[in-house]
Amino acid sequence: MALDRNLPGIQSLKHVVVLMMENRSFDHMLGALKATNPAIDGLSGNESNPDTTGAAITVQPLAQYQSQLDPDPNHHFAAVNLQIFGDPQHGPPLPATMQGFIKSYYNQQNNVQHSHDILYYFTPDKLPVLTTLATQYAVFNRWFASIPGPTICNRAFAHYGTAFGQVSMDIFYEGKSIKAIYDRLLAANHTTKLFYYDEASSTMEVVNLLQNEPSLFGTFPDFLAACKANALPDYCFIEPNYTDHPSPDGSGEAIACDQHPDHDVRAGEMFIAQVYNAIRTNPNLWPNTALLVVYDEHGGIYDHVPPPSCPPDTPFIAQPADTGTLDAFVFDRLGVRVPAILVSPWVQAGTVIDDVFDHAAIPATVADFFQLPDTQRSQRELNAGTFLGHLNLPAMRADNECPSFAIQTKP
Prior knowledge:
The protein is of the alpha/beta class. Helix content is 25%, strand content 11%. The protein has a single domain, classed as Alkaline Phosphatase, subunit A, CATH 3.40.720.10.
């Protein structure tokens, strides 16, 4: 959506915050919302996949918070090929049937009954934070992972607008011709920070970013303090806690809140609420901040919507040896659909966005809003849509029209 800078919400906007969670598909987390709002492209309840015996297994509202998706579903390139196309070795021109999820999960344990769990989804009452944000602000019907593969390459698209030809979990370091959005913001005299949870839990992707500029990194307590002090940078990217470990202050255990299988989904719910509340409860911050909650990739979990094609991310290409398949990949199709929600008091409650997005839209939107030059941007980012145009209400919503959450100490 083209950005109308005359919109009151855009004129008020000062801060863009992105919270990226882990490894859950749209249908798994938000698919049940179709029952109350048919505009949301979720589940009818009739969707199915064949299992390895040939039986058609339908989706069921039986997802559990923890101890169900263990072992971790495979979400590397070849496994996602199987999930989307029914063949681990080939993608297009095979049709994207979305019929290979159970067969893929069967390969993790060779257990027919357990493989059915990959089709289970949450009901809204099980995810009160995520579903409240989705229904009270704007939910994206068509936000896809940037590639049909795992975490690091997908998160790279959020930082750089490209994965530089990578489709695996390999580390690739700075010094690339395309600069991270953080570098570009700094060059234009804007403030920016990437907040990881704490010293014991930061993503591997951090090593790809700004290794010589540690001042651009902060911990999650730093984010909370910045919100309280009205000192939030222009652009913030927030990462959850990826591991169970002793808390830095010695007060107990920090529970993984990334929602990556098989971590407790409730801990992620509380973390999302904590980020939201830190912004929502500050009357000096809430009117001028937009929050995007999004997931890096689907984690091998079922979604019924076939990923679309997209213009190639020229000049990057992944050879068959890199993809683990018989095909090269030119980054001309997206990964599986993930949950994404845009939060602001300038967003109409119940908004459903049908435009196609992937994670390259994050640096594209930030660059567009802060009017950064197009130099050193990837082809994917240049082709990406932007989403702040949905802050389009003529007046900010009243305080009692915007939810807030009570936060527990444990899941």
